[in-house]
Write a structure and sequence with these properties.
single chain; 216 residues; mainly alpha
């Protein structure tokens, strides 16, 4: 097997390349869930675009503001272009019976990917491990909270099935794996997949955390 050109493989080991890849993936997935939420209510294409944008960049915006970093989508127009492209694509696809299930599964992918992304960006900014986990969780969940509020749907925070916990798992596992200097790509992939699998199990089998016990 011919080895890869070092000039090609070096960017894959660059943390900034990893962060950018995770960021674009998370924005695209969450923007699609925003557009799908607008589709459920049969809104027009402008509302599709608004839902896609607010869901796609909402969590990352809160993260950057709390970390006192430049807001990522203001610095790079491509993020907003990804959101608008997702909205237009969903609008053109039109009515489909599978769209609600697609929203749930895309949300599961986003929770894993963006949970890792938020933790990774906080880590790169020098935040302590616990704050990295909090930032990962906020990044993955805040856009969905805003989306559900605007759509008049029950917030993900109020659903009994495992949801936010999947983002916490992804962010926590990423930080734990990075502590012994695990390379960023393997840590990110393992953590994102773990977060997705936990949410997927909740969707497939209805997994929940124990509720607060009622007084006898």
């Amino acid at each position: 097997m011919t080895p890869l050109d070092p000039a090609l493989t070096e960017p894959l080991r660059n943390p900034q390349t990893v962060l950018a890849a995770l960021d674009f993936a998370g924005v695209a997935v969450f923007a699609a869930t925003g557009a799908l939420a607008a589709a459920r209510e049969k809104h027009d294409v402008v509302t599709f675009a608004f839902f896609a944008a607010i869901t796609g960049v909402g969590g990352g915006t809160l993260r950057d503001l709390l970390l006192e970093l430049p807001v990522f989508w203001v610095q790079d127009w491509r993020y907003m272009a990804v959101c608008l492209s997702a909205a237009v694509a969903l609008w053109l696809i039109g009515q489909r019976d599978w769209r609600f299930r697609a929203l749930l599964w895309l949300d599961a992918v986003g929770l894993g990917a963006y949970g890792v992304m938020g933790a990774a960006k906080a880590e790169a900014a020098g935040a302590p491990p616990l704050i990295c986990i909090v930032m990962g969780t906020l990044t993955a969940c805040f856009g969905g909270v805003v989306r559900d509020t605007l759509a008049g749907q029950p917030s993900i925070l109020l659903r009994r099935e495992i949801n936010v916990t999947a983002a916490i798992l992804a962010a926590t596992l990423y930080i734990v794996l990075r502590m012994p200097e695990t390379p960023i790509w393997p840590a990110a992939i393992v953590a994102a997949v773990a977060g997705f699998m936990l949410r997927a199990g909740a969707l497939r089998w209805g997994w929940t955390l124990p509720g607060f016990p009622a007084r006898n």
